[in-house]
Specification:
222 residues, mainly alpha, 68% helix, globular
């Protein structure tokens, strides 16, 4: 493991590999599901993942997914107005902003002239798609755009740098500290370091992301 000497010790790596043995099959199954979702090209399913990632910043992922499921069940996700959407965003932080973001993203996504669906369906370069999403979807930064692309099967080389991942990267010596604010440039620098680490550790980046999440939360989620 060259290049990871800050806090790098065999004990941490052995522990991580033990967690991997426990969750390996589940992680692979989840990634297969994401890939199939993207390959199927179902617009509603893909937008559902987009909407989920709009809600997640500074909010609990499971709570956000519950809100998405509720909106899908009652038909609001695809057709509801802002007042109806807000009712299902209880507990989601910054719900007033995010309700606007969701409505604007829905209008863009289902507009035939918008390229997001085309990019995904035709498996365009994920880095280019991410840059486009950051510029064109309100509420999306590198993390949210990467998360969305992973969830539609296009994130095998994109890192989702949430607090769980950053915490573990610091422990492993991949990064030295965790900054309160992360610019796009800093994000991509950390992403490159995580890619190098995943290669050295022998676990693909998208699996490593779900593994570190599972290590912290005890489950494989989204």
């Amino acid at each position: 493991m060259k290049g990871y000497s800050i806090n790098n010790n065999k004990k941490l790596l052995v522990e991580l590999m033990e967690v991997y043995k426990i969750f390996k099959d589940e992680i692979k199954k989840r990634l297969k599901y994401f890939k199939e979702l993207g390959n199927n090209g179902n617009k509603n399913e893909i937008f559902t993942e987009l909407a989920f990632c709009i809600l997640t910043p500074q909010s609990r992922a499971k709570l956000c997914w519950k809100a998405i499921e509720n909106m899908r069940k009652n038909g609001i996700l695809f057709n509801g107005n802002r007042e109806e959407i807000l009712k299902d965003l209880e507990g989601v932080r910054f719900k007033y902003k995010k309700s606007y973001y969701l409505l604007e993203a829905r209008e863009k996504f289902f507009n035939d002239s918008n390229p997001i669906y085309y990019f995904i369906k035709n498996k365009k370069n994920p880095y280019e798609i991410r840059d486009y999403l950051i510029k064109n979807i309100k509420g999306f930064g590198c993390k949210e755009a990467s998360h969305f692309l992973r969830n539609v099967g296009l994130g095998s080389q994109l890192a989702i740098l949430d607090r769980h991942i950053l915490k573990n990267l610091r422990k492993l010596g991949v990064i030295q500290d965790i900054k309160k604010t992360c610019t796009e440039r800093t994000y991509k620098e950390i992403e490159r370091k995580m890619i190098d680490f995943s290669k050295s550790f022998g676990i693909p980046l998208d699996q490593l992301d779900l593994l570190l999440w599972a290590k912290e939360t005890g489950e494989v989620f989204k």
